[in-house]
Structure formats: structure tokens, C-alpha cells
Write a structure and sequence with these properties.
This protein is an alpha+beta fold. The chain is built from 13 helices and 17 strands. It has helices at residues 46-62, 64-68, 76-79, 188-192, 199-209, 218-222, 240-250, 252-263, 302-313, 334-349, 363-366, 396-401, 406-411, and strands at residues 3-12, 15-21, 35-40, 88-95, 104-112, 118-127, 138-144, 147-152, 175-180, 212-214, 269-276, 282-288, 295-296, 322-326, 355-360, 374-379, 385-389. The two termini are 38 Å apart. 42% of the residues are buried. This is ATPase.
Length: 420
């Protein structure tokens, strides 16, 4: 499964210029691990960081103006960092599963026209040529103000020596194609990513479109949904019943084993069984300690239902390449958080497991992590957010090696940042 090696975000709310992991311009940094956790005080920019990831996905799916105008964003000018006249910029670096795969970098700049409508002003997808270790990666998509070019074909370019300059030349069966976007609110990768002869664009589009952000709402998950089957749990959890129906239909034996595994991890639950109602809806029947009669998901507490949803999410047979979760600790007992963090770590470490990015306020959750899995967001005197990897804070690696958990270091303010 592809992995996000790093992302740079500029001029997005308080994220005036933050970099997470390795990018085209921060090549000396380490690539992001499979589990990334961002901590920090209220208002430090954690929600903006997750929303920036969601914004990229919305731009791809709906266009940049529609993505900016979503109610919680309020339009381009409300999103752009106060005082900035520069575009909102993203630099994304990702890599396909093989360890020797060459990373691909994607640049996206969004500004507004004279009428205040958001539009794409720059877009570029690039990768180093085979054998190239230094110098600028070669572009196989580059658009400025909607015009530019893209390479078609499976490889698109190779080292060229015929000109004596080392310039790349087209491989047989590939060509450099002029591109002019009719609608500058649409990403070039959204259009070209539907064409099979632009293989790298297709691969990156599939990677970006697969990102999943969880904003679980217990009340929505508690209500039984209509009969039907959905292959994935949606962002708010309201299709929980349909997701279960899909898993049960696809693999009945595996579904029963899944319920047994989850039943052992949800506190107070003895057994979980699936029950099909007369209208063909699937509901879960829970047997709990101290109760002679079973109960259903409508009767579960917010915390228990949330724990159930996260465990079900981690049973998805075809997970998203990147999963973002905001404050999973809300509604959960503090003693469950280290267990939940460990579950996420194990899930992310699986061969087909996703990469997971989590924001949290909970030291108990952070206790289960390593210095390389924790980043600290802190708002400076200039009002902008600054991002620091915990392992880069002097003394943190040494104290962790001596047996002091990361959450305890944070709670005791040994980071020196990330607290009110």
C-alpha cells in the first residue's frame, strides 16, 4: 500500500508554513512512519491540519471552489492565512509499496480570480528518473494557470544522451501532450487521472482520493440505517449497519470471527451476535456482564459505541491508504486509551494496513507511542502554528530510553512546547 512520506502546507489558516515528514524541499527529514500522532494545546492548529488533508480530497472530488465554500471553511479568503496574499500551497510526497519505488511529489497552488472565486494556479507532478540521485525530479504533469503538458505512456521519459545535454527523451509508445484546462476550478489530476495512458497521474489520483477522515458521531451510528450493504464505514459512522451487512455477506465465517475478536476488546461485553430484522436490516445484539437480556447498538453509551466503531474500522478488508482521526479519546475512559493506541499501531503495521494520522489531547494515548510517532503543534507569538517532531526535542529520546512514557513527558512539560 502506498504511503505518505511527507506534506508541506502553506497559508492554510494558522498553518502559515508547516512541514510534516519528508518533502521535495525537506529531503533531509525522515519519511513519516505508519502511525503519526499530533499533539498540542487547544487552538494550536490540529483541526486545521486534518481539515487540510480533507480539503485536498474535496478539491479532487468536487473542485476547488466547492471545497473552499463548504460551511465549515467559509470560502477562500477565510481559509487563507490572515495577512497573506500568496496562494494556499500544498507539497505532497508519496511512495508506492515497494521499498525501492521512487517517490512522487505533487505541488498544488490555489488562489482566487478577480471575482473572488478559488482556482488552481499551479499544479505539478514529478519523479526522479531511474538512476537519478541528484538534481530536480522530472515533471510528467505541469500546469500553470490551466495550461501546460503531461506525459502519456507507461514510463514517459528516460535518460537522453542524443542531444549531449542529458535531457530526457520520450520512450517508445509515450509522448508529451499539451494540456489546456477548460475549467480552472478542476484539478488536472482529476481529469487526467481518469485516463489509463497517464499511469502516474492515475496512481496518485487513486492514492489521494482514497484518504479517509473519521469524524465519528455516536448519535448517527446509534440509529439503525436502512437495509443495504456498504463496503466501508463512512466518515460519521451513520452507515454502521450497512457496513456490517456488507462484511457479513462477503465473508460470513470471517464476520463471526470478527465479532468474537471485537467482543473480547470492548469492556463489559461478553458476546456479540448479528441479528437480521424482518426488513432485512442487520443489527448487533450485545450480551453484557450483569444483564440477563441482550441489548442493541441503539442502547450503547457513546464511549462504547465509539470504541466499537474504531475496532470495526480496523477490520476493513480493503482499508484506505491514509486514515485521519480527530481526538479519538472523546467519550472514552482514560484507561482504554493506551489499549486503543496499541490497536492502531498494530493495525498500521500490517502488510496491508493503512497509514494513520491522529490528533489528540490525551497523554494516556500518547503513552503507547514512541518519540518518532509524535509531533507537537505549538502556536508562536506570531500567531502561526509550528510543528516539531518529539524526537527532535533535546533530551526526549534519552528520557524515553530510560523508561519514561511519551505521555508523561508531555504532561510534565518536558517538551517545553505543546501546552497552554
Amino acid at each position: 500500500m502506498a504511503i505518505l512520506e511527507g506534506i508541506q502546507i502553506q497559508n492554510y489558516r494558522a498553518l502559515q508554513d508547516v512541514t510534516l515528514g519528508k518533502t521535495l524541499y525537506e529531503r533531509e527529514q525522515d519519511a513519516l512512519p505508519r502511525l503519526v500522532t499530533v499533539i498540542g494545546a487547544n487552538g494550536s492548529g490540529k483541526s486545521s491540519l486534518l481539515d487540510a488533508l480533507g480539503f485536498l480530497g474535496d478539491c479532487l472530488a468536487e473542485g476547488v471552489e466547492a471545497a473552499c465554500d463548504k460551511p465549515h471553511r467559509g470560502g477562500f479568503e477565510r481559509m487563507r492565512t490572515q495577512g497573506s496574499v500568496e496562494p494556499i500551497k500544498f507539497e505532497v510526497r508519496y511512495k508506492e509499496t515497494p521499498t525501492n519505488a521512487r517517490p512522487i511529489s505533487y505541488s498544488l497552488h490555489i488562489a482566487c480570480d478577480a471575482q473572488g472565486r478559488a482556482q488552481v494556479v499551479y499544479e505539478r507532478l514529478r519523479q526522479r528518473r531511474k538512476g537519478q540521485k541528484y538534481g530536480q525530479p522530472y515533471s510528467f504533469l505541469e500546469l500553470t494557470n490551466g495550461q501546460g503538458y503531461a506525459w502519456s505512456g507507461t514510463e514517459g521519459f528516460e535518460e537522453g544522451t542524443g542531444t549531449g545535454t542529458g535531457a530526457p527523451t520520450a520512450r517508445e509508445g509515450s509522448e508529451r501532450v499539451p494540456v489546456k484546462m477548460k475549467d480552472r476550478q478542476v484539478l488536472g489530476i482529476a481529469t487526467l487521472g481518469t485516463l489509463a495512458n497517464h499511469d502516474r497521474v492515475v496512481a496518485f489520483r487513486d492514492f489521494l482520493s482514497g484518504w479517509y477522515l473519521s469524524y465519528f458521531v455516536p448519535e448517527l451510528a446509534r440509529n439503525p440505517s436502512q437495509a443495504g450493504a456498504d463496503p466501508h464505514l463512512d466518515r460519521r459512522g451513520e452507515n454502521l449497519s450497512r457496513y456490517l451487512q456488507y462484511v457479513e455477506r462477503a465473508n460470513p465465517g470471517g464476520f463471526r470471527q470478527m465479532l468474537e475478536r471485537i467482543g473480547k476488546k470492548v469492556p463489559g461485553i461478553i458476546d456479540i451476535k448479528a441479528k437480521t430484522e424482518r426488513d432485512r436490516r442487520l443489527v448487533l445484539e450485545f450480551s453484557a456482564q450483569g444483564f440477563p437480556e441482550p441489548f442493541y447498538q441503539q442502547d450503547m453509551s457513546d464511549g462504547t459505541l465509539k470504541m466499537l466503531a474504531y475496532l470495526l474500522l480496523m477490520e476493513d478488508p480493503s482499508p484506505a491508504p491514509l486514515i485521519g482521526i480527530e481526538e479519538p479519546e472523546n467519550g472514552l475512559h482514560h484507561q482504554l486509551l493506551a489499549t486503543l493506541a496499541q490497536e492502531f499501531k498494530e493495525y498500521a503495521s500490517k502488510a496491508r494496513g493503512p497509514q494513520i494520522l491522529i490528533t489528540t489531547h490525551a497523554p494516556n494515548f500518547v503513552d503507547a507511542l514512541t518519540p518518532d510517532e509524535v509531533w507537537i503543534l505549538d502556536k508562536g507569538a506570531d500567531g502561526f502554528s509550528h510543528l516539531t517532531r518529539a524526537s527532535d526535542v533535546p533530551g526526549v529520546r534519552e528520557m524515553f530510553a530510560e523508561g519514561i512514557p511519551m505521555g508523561s513527558l508531555w504532561y510534565s512539560n518536558h517538551f517545553g512546547i505543546g501546552n497552554p
